[in-house]
Specification:
The protein has about 400 residues and is an alpha/beta fold. It contains 13 helices and 14 strands.
Length: about 400
């Protein structure tokens, strides 16, 4: 039946993170004891003060259509959050609230990219970036990095990737999937390159900003010369354990915000009313309110990195943020384990699912075919058991 569908959907790749999560759920329903380390979803509950704000909104009858770009009260709260946390001055007219940060990114690609415009993606990159660019008829330009460089792009690599067709660079810091965090010095070096190309826009995905173990966070829009061409993307899914609430937002040049509002008005219109009222409470809160989650993620990071270092053949760095590790497993390629030939990261990930009952995601989905992604957004007991199984499955 594929020939009855559009070329657009036939050429669109399935999200590998969602596909692996669905497969893990299916195997669990069959009675298999699967530990899923595939989805980037905190295992904490949404904080009570946010839930109370949602209940209050229901009681106060916030049940009508919302403004396409978000409630003014929420945009004002986000504006203050940008100033407080990032030293960024975005007026409410520069902010657009969407149904998750994924929609924010989709909107931006649609309003900025023309056919054959190029978007630079430092690899590894979040699994949906490439397909979002393709859906806007743009061309994703992957720039590979390695575990030795902590998966960070260098100014020289950036310069080399820029062509007359380059319209955008899109990246996340802290990074999904690598956990890498760009510091101010590194971002300033990249900005020095971008200064020479004033027509290139920067899309900075900062949804993991609070899950950051360095003690410092820098938004590239604060680097001199970058503010007027950077769109800062954020949301409440990760730091506030609100994945199902589906609220993301952008801050950027006003003409881009207006364009995103126009685009969104023809797709979803305004985001969910109750979720928006709850998000006001989230972004107004002192980040100390979620410190307990960040502390727990830090402990889990140390646990997982330590256990992985004890597995021969796995190469691991020490990620500074988010809740992922992205080990290099290429030493297993070409080897046969328990009768299974491991040709690539896809095979390796499926081998762990079959032999260890542990769900991970192939690095190929993130633009790095030598790695796989583990999410450590689950309990220490489950992480310890998962890594024990993996070590046993790779003991050959």
């Amino acid at each position: 039946m594929e020939n009855l569908l559009s070329d657009r959907i036939n050429n669109l790749s399935t999200s590998q993170t969602l596909a692996m999560a669905a497969l893990a759920r299916e195997l669990k329903l069959q009675g298999k004891d699967i530990i899923s380390l595939s989805l980037g979803e905190p295992d904490f509950n949404t904080p009570d003060f946010i839930k109370e704000a949602a209940k209050k909104a229901i009681d106060e009858n916030y049940s009508q259509y919302t403004p396409v770009d978000g409630y003014l009260e929420l945009k004002e709260a986000i504006s203050k959050k940008f100033k407080r946390d990032n030293n960024l001055d975005y007026k409410p007219s520069q902010i657009v609230v969407s149904t998750g940060a994924k929609q924010s990114l989709f909107n931006l690609a649609q309003v900025l990219l023309n056919p054959d415009d190029e978007c630079i993606l430092p690899a590894p990159f979040w699994v949906s970036y490439s397909e979002i660019v393709k859906m806007a008829d743009g061309i994703p330009i992957e720039v590979p990095t390695t575990i030795e460089s902590d998966f960070k792009i260098t100014p020289e690599q950036l310069e080399k990737a820029i062509t007359p067709k380059t319209k955008m660079i899109m990246f996340s810091s802290p990074c999904n999937p690598s956990g890498s965090v760009y510091n101010r010095e590194e971002l300033t070096a990249l900005a020095k390159v971008l200064e020479k190309y004033p027509k290139i826009f920067i899309v900075s995905d900062e949804i993991y900003e609070h899950i950051n173990f360095t003690g410092n966070f820098c938004s590239i829009a604060t680097i001199p010369g970058m503010y007027d061409r950077t769109i800062t993307v954020n949301g409440v899914s990760k730091a506030f354990a609100m994945t199902g609430w589906r609220i993301g937002y952008i801050g950027g040049p006003e003409f881009i915000a207006k364009a995103c509002t126009k685009m969104q008005g023809q797709i979803t219109s305004g985001a969910n009313s109750i979720a928006q009222r709850a998000t006001i409470a989230a972004v107004e809160a002192d980040p100390k309110e979620i410190k307990f989650m960040v502390t727990e993620f830090h402990k889990r990071r140390d646990l997982v990195v330590g256990l992985l270092k004890n597995i021969p053949g796995i190469k691991i760095n020490n990620p500074d943020g988010a809740f992922y590790v992205f080990p290099d497993v290429s030493s297993f390629f070409g080897k046969t384990l328990k009768g299974t030939l491991i040709k690539n990261a896809d095979d390796f990930s499926m081998y762990l699912l079959a032999q260890a009952n542990v769900a991970t995601v192939t690095g190929d989905a993130f633009g790095n075919p030598n790695c796989i992604r583990f999410s450590y957004a689950t309990s220490e007991d489950l992480l310890t058991e998962a890594l024990r199984r993996i070590k046993e499955a790779l003991a050959e």
